[in-house]
């Protein structure tokens, strides 16, 4: 039983190095969580084999920590509110303030737990806990120490303090970091080196469990460089630790009088007194062999049954095969001795002892057969609560949950303070009563790093996870920022939304657009169904000039609104687009003299004060009147044919949108307006496999080309503003060659221009564009699929295994529920939450009346 800690175990922290007072040196890393639930057995086995290989070949003592960090929704939204700028900022800040209140009322503002995974590797070989002492090797080590000089002698020679560390020694351990990091990165997808502030958190969080988390710092420098001289007068640089910086992290009263728990009491930064009941449990026994899949004992703390935070500390001392078999032999002898003593006393042998003897013998035989190394493990769990009753409920729930996996947890009396210290980075194992001798596979099968976390934990609230009811936050422009601490798998700002009609895909698309605009972004929405016509009336928060919904062709002011000279950001771009449109409509290619006439006419129009597409035809007529006498009959026929073709086109529906006229009262799309919706009547896009033949097909495609040009202008506008180009019911656009080209262009270049393409359609097969760029979108959302084939296509698009379980899941998603894959490649089912009733009404595309909505909400 440990009553006090005579010396704090951590001596110094330098970058990701943690030096212990007993000479141990730890390199620290954080493993980014990986999604696990939706993968098939083959993929899961791959994870298992990778971790088994790591723990077999990483011949070091390890300290694994699984720490839940409370993600405070208030802090997330406060940070988001602070970042908002632009014309929508006042409204956005007010709405996100209301969102904070909503989450607080639903008890989610401070209950979002995100698990983090830390691994500390002990790299001072001299301090490895379990070593085979080979006399020859030991003699060589002694000789090496003699050549280098004993550490104590060196300390005395140059006047080092006991806590001082030679900078040369620090650099040597940094060199080892490359090797260790390389081994870890081969096992886990993303591994970040710990920083001094993170190590500070890992120390301090032990004294603040369940209480207000201390302020996070960007730097934590607790050492200073000083120069000393050895006996030969040679300068030596050393790092001298300011120990008070470490000690003040422990400012907490610890009451161990309850026996099976501790009471922590501290004053937070606001001066308020906080108290927390904390209990530690140890693994007394667990299956000796790896059983995979099905025994993911580390991952288990994120199950449905455990709706409270749980911490895990695993101290695993690496043992060569020779040592582990010897230890198991000793354990067998001890158990046999207990059995003999019981028989001498005339007592019946405890069946537990017999079972343990058989278990030890079985494991011993396995190690002797395989020759593999092993680990002597101490596994501790920690739970906490604000009162004793709740704490006991959580202890019982944890014991019960692990009993299902044949893992026995105990809550010992009198050892709580010792277990408390064992969680500290740089500390050592105090739990000597419950030693576990296991093969590397037992540690690997725990699935260290597997997570149910989803989203960015930044930005705005979108909904809740179906599994644990956690709030999901996303920051749509995060993928392109290339931040060092963001280990995203997808860099694209573009988004895919799919699913059968009536399940919620348009609703989610609208919700994303709304919150992006309220966050200071801009959105342009192509609306082929006309669902958004009443947004100016129903959608809250917009002034008249901030939201515009156009039904192109419905008003006289729409004439000429897509004229290249009115939508392009430069005259050169307008010239290029005009030539592209007119040559396409007139079937004039490079070898055709009509193409030359168009080039000359467009060039002349660009010189006019108010250029527009109709004036190209007028320039052609002027050329005819001016040059007909000197033109050949063939050339004149060609020019007449071109003029006649343009006159015919101008009389066709949709053409008036493209052909602006001089002196026209027109309105144009704006690059500055926060939200614009474009509804186009009579648009008829041909499939990419079928060339446009009819004039309506050609005009429809020309309108799309013009919209493409505006999309590019939007993309090329202010990089500081996040922009989204939105295409609802995108199947026809993606199947069209020009629409496919636009999609690929925005996805490919949008990251640089801070622009995302948001596509909504029914099936994954719609996203197979010609250049395959659509496969590289960032976030993906899929609502319920109707048929097996559709579900299989979507799973393939998500890079998830096509299993009966996953196909069934895709078909059984409820209305408003979708499978979300974030920019980190993690996948989870979420329930979309609009927060405000007004948004629910504005985005509802069903035929419900207002009265029916009222009755439904009662």
Topology:
Blueprint: E1 10-14, E2 17-20, E3 25-31, E4 34-35, H1 41-57, E5 61-71, H2 73-83, H3 89-105, E6 112-122, H4 135-148, H5 151-158, E7 165-166, H6 167-185, E8 191-193, H7 196-204, E9 223-229, E10 235-241, H8 243-247, E11 253-255, E12 262-267, E13 273-285, E14 311-319, H9 321-344, H10 351-370, E15 374-385, H11 388-403, E16 408-410, H12 416-422, E17 436-438, H13 440-444, E18 450-451, E19 460-465, E20 471-474, E21 495-498, H14 505-518, E22 522-526, H15 535-538, E23 547-552, H16 564-567, H17 571-585, H18 593-605, H19 614-627, H20 633-650, H21 655-658, E24 675-680, H22 695-716, E25 723-727, H23 731-735, H24 737-753, E26 755-761, E27 779-782, H25 788-797, H26 804-812, E28 817-821, E29 827-832, H27 837-843, H28 850-857
Parallel strand pairs: 4-18, 21-26, 21-27, 22-24, 22-25, 23-24, 25-26
Antiparallel strand pairs: 1-2, 2-3, 3-6, 3-8, 5-6, 5-14, 7-10, 9-10, 11-12, 12-13, 13-15, 13-16, 14-15, 15-17, 19-20, 19-29, 27-28, 28-29
Helix pairs in contact: 2-3, 9-10, 17-18, 17-22, 18-19, 19-20, 22-24, 25-26
InterPro entries: ATPase_SAG2001_prd (IPR016628), P-loop_NTPase (IPR027417), T4SS_component (IPR051162)
Protein name: Recombinase RmuC
Pfam families: AAA_10
């Amino acid at each position: 039983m440990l009553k006090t800690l005579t010396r704090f175990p951590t001596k110094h922290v330098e970058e990701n190095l943690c030096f212990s007072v007993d000479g141990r040196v730890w390199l620290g890393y954080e493993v980014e969580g990986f999604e696990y639930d939706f993968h098939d057995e083959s993929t899961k086995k791959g994870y298992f084999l990778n971790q088994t290989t790591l723990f077999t070949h990483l011949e070091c003592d390890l300290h694994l920590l699984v720490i839940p960090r409370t993600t405070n929704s208030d802090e997330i939204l406060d940070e988001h509110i602070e970042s908002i700028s632009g014309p929508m900022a006042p409204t956005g800040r007010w709405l996100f303030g209301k969102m904070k209140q909503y989450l607080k009322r639903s008890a989610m503002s401070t209950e979002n737990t995100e698990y983090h995974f830390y691994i500390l590797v002990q790299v001072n070989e001299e301090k490895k806990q379990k070593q085979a002492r080979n006399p020859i090797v030991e003699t060589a080590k002694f000789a090496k120490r003699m050549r280098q000089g004993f550490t104590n002698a060196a300390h005395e020679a140059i006047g080092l303090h006991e806590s001082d560390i030679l900078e040369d020694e620090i650099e040597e351990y940094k060199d080892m970091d490359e090797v260790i990091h390389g081994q870890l990165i081969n096992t886990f997808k993303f591994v970040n080196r710990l920083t001094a502030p993170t190590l500070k958190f890992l120390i301090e969080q032990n004294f603040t469990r369940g209480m207000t988390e201390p302020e996070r710092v960007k730097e934590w420098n607790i050492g200073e460089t000083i120069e000393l001289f050895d006996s030969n007068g040679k300068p030596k640089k050393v790092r001298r630790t300011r120990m008070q910086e470490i000690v003040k992290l422990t400012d907490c009263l610890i009451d161990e009088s309850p026996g099976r728990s501790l009471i922590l009491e501290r004053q937070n930064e606001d001066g308020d007194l906080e108290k927390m009941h904390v209990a530690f449990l140890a693994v007394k026994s667990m299956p000796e062999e790896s059983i995979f899949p099905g025994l993911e004992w580390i991952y288990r703390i994120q199950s449905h049954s455990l709706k409270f935070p749980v911490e895990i500390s695993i101290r695993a001392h690496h043992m060569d095969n020779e040592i582990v078999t010897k230890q198991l032999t000793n354990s067998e002898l001890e158990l046999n001795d207990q059995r003999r003593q019981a028989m001498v006393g005339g007592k019946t042998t405890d069946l537990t002892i017999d079972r343990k003897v058989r278990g030890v013998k079985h494991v011993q035989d396995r190690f002797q057969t395989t020759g593999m190394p092993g680990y002597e493990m101490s596994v501790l769990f920690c739970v906490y609560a604000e009162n004793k009753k709740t704490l006991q409920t959580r202890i019982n729930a944890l014991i019960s949950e692990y009993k299902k996996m044949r893992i026995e947890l105990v809550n010992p009396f009198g050892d709580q303070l010792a277990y408390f210290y064992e969680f500290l980075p740089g500390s050592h194992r105090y739990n000597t009563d419950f030693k576990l001798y296991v093969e590397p596979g037992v540690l690997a099968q725990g699935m260290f790093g597997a997570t149910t976390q989803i989203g960015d934990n930044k930005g705005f609230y979108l909904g809740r996870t179906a599994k644990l009811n956690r709030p999901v936050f996303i920051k749509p422009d995060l993928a392109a920022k290339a931040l060092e601490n963001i280990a995203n798998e997808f860099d694209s700002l573009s988004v895919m939304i799919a699913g059968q009609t009536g399940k919620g895909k348009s609703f989610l698309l609208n919700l994303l657009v709304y919150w992006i605009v309220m966050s200071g972004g801009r959105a342009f929405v192509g609306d082929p169904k006309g669902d958004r016509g009443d947004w100016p009336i129903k959608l809250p928060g917009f002034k008249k000039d901030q939201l515009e919904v156009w039904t192109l062709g419905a008003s006289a002011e729409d004439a000429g609104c897509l004229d290249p000279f009115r939508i392009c950001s430069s005259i050169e771009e307008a010239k290029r687009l005009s030539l592209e449109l007119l040559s396409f409509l007139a079937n004039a290619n490079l070898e055709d003299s009509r193409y030359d006439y168009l080039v000359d006419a467009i060039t002349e129009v660009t010189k006019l004060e108010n250029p527009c597409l109709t004036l190209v035809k007028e320039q052609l007529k002027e050329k005819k009147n001016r040059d007909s006498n000197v033109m050949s009959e063939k050339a004149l026929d060609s020019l007449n044919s071109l003029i006649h073709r343009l006159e015919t086109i101008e009389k066709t529906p949709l053409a008036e949108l493209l052909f602006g006229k001089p002196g026209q009262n027109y309105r144009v799309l704006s690059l500055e307006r926060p939200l614009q919706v474009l509804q186009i009547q009579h648009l008829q896009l041909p499939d990419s496999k079928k060339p446009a033949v009819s004039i309506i097909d050609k005009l429809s495609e020309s309108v799309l080309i013009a919209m493409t040009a505006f999309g590019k202008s939007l993309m090329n506008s202010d990089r500081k503003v996040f922009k989204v180009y939105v295409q609802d019911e995108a199947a026809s656009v993606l199947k069209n060659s020009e629409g496919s080209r636009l999609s690929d262009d925005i996805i490919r270049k949008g990251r640089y221009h801070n622009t995302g393409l948001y596509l909504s359609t029914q099936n994954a097969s719609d996203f197979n564009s010609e250049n395959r760029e659509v496969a590289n979108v960032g976030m993906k959302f899929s609502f319920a699929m109707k048929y097996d084939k559709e579900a299989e296509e979507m799973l393939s698009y998500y890079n998830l295994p096509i299993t009966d379980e996953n196909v069934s899941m895709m078909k059984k998603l409820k209305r408003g529920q979708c499978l979300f894959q974030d920019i980190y490649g993690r996948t989870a089912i979420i329930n979309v939450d609009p927060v405000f009733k007004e948004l629910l009404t504005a985005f509802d595309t069903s035929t419900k009346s207002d009265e029916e909505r009222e009755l439904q909400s009662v």
